[in-house]
Task: structure prediction
Amino acid sequence: MQYREDGASQEVAAAKAGISVRSGRRIERSGAPRDKSQRDWRTREDPLEAVWDAELVVLLEREPSLTGTTLLEYLEEHYPGHYDQRVLRTLQRRVKQWRALEGPDREVIFRQQAAMAQQGFSDFTHPDSPIGIQGEPFSHLLYQFRLAYSGWRSVTVVQGGESYAALACGLQRALQQAGGSPLEHRTDSLSAARNNRQNVWTDAYGELCAHYGMEPTRNNLGQSHENGVVECANGSLKRRLSQQLKLRGHADFACIEATQAYIDPGAAKLNRRSHSRFAEEKAALQPLPGHDAADYQSLNIKVTRSSTIEVRRVVYTVPSRLIGERVQVRLHHDRLVLLVGQHPALTLARVYPKPGEDRARSVNYKHVIRSLASKPQAFRYSQLRDDLLPDDNYRELWKCADQHLKAREACKWIVTILRLAFEYDDEEALGRDLLIDARAGKFASITDLQGRYLDSQTPASSAASSQHELVSYDELLSSITGSTADQVPEELS
Result:
């Protein structure tokens, strides 16, 4: 109207006002524009008029988290036949509007500005894509450390659960890669770091942080967003690894070290995004001490007369010379180191129970074979019998011998084979070749074995401290002179 009052034509005034000429004429006739959004009347009856203020608002004021669906169920129960699903959307909109206008205050998240070299975050996550080691499923976690300022990350493959050994191993590896340590290290409610019942840090974790000059902190229970720096990074890491494995075509690796070597370049590519900020932050990190902190737990265990120890529900065999000794076991996430006094005695690969099982065994026949050779009949009913056989070939060898030979003969034969495999370090070839004959019911004599495997090779000096005379095998199999089952006598002396 102002443009028209100033003398502009209808067409010019409409153009300046951003409306059509027709609308301009209508407005001029009516004297004022019509605001369709404003009205003071209802176009339809309010289905909740009778209960909204009197009942539903009262319920919401008492418990603001009530949903529209819950309130509808309340109405259906108290007013049968008056309310049904047709009012659900109206009820949901009304509840949403009430919360916005009259509801309680909501929690506010205060975004934090990361200070340089101030905070480092740790977290464990389960990988999205399963992998295998030499064809066997490999149960593992990914430990991730991330600097808050730059976003630089380090990723370590760890076995078992979220243990202190896994945390210490991954954290120290990350700090070594970063070239320094931040002032503060933050975790979630890891039991490896904190005794949540007593609400105190564990001694081992406290010493670890003190070693690197870091103050231990944690986010509040149930507030995962407080650890968001690393929680969000877990998603990007797992998506990248999943895509890389799909591009690779398979997810099988030769060993754990090969798995780690495959993951490291993926983490390095993600770190390229923060290269400049990390270079800036790295210069501000605290210098590292001259040596690493302990990344293991120490246990004192006595070796049983069965030449075994039990660690975390897993039975391990050890060399029989340790029977009766009390050994210190340094429990890493991937290995056990046994010490007698302060002297290292043995390193074993750590084993974990399979999913759904609460116990496991790690048995090496080489630890007990000399003792077993002196009493081969103990093999048949040994609790460790099936575990003493090193692979599927030897397990099938035992089945064949047990089927074709008499009970005593079968025990002596398989124990002799194990002793021979140990002394001459020819385990795989020996088992593979003998299985061909065993499937046909043929069981080689000690003379045949000597000629086939021993005459052409030098015994492994590292396998045993002294070489046994072949007569010791002849004594075990003194009666086996032929190459077929029919040539095996009834009794072996």
Remarks:
- Residues 1-33 form one domain.
- The first strand starts at residue 119 and ends at 125.
- The chain has a mean pLDDT of 84.
- The chain has five domains: 1-33, 52-102, 119-282, 297-362, 369-487.
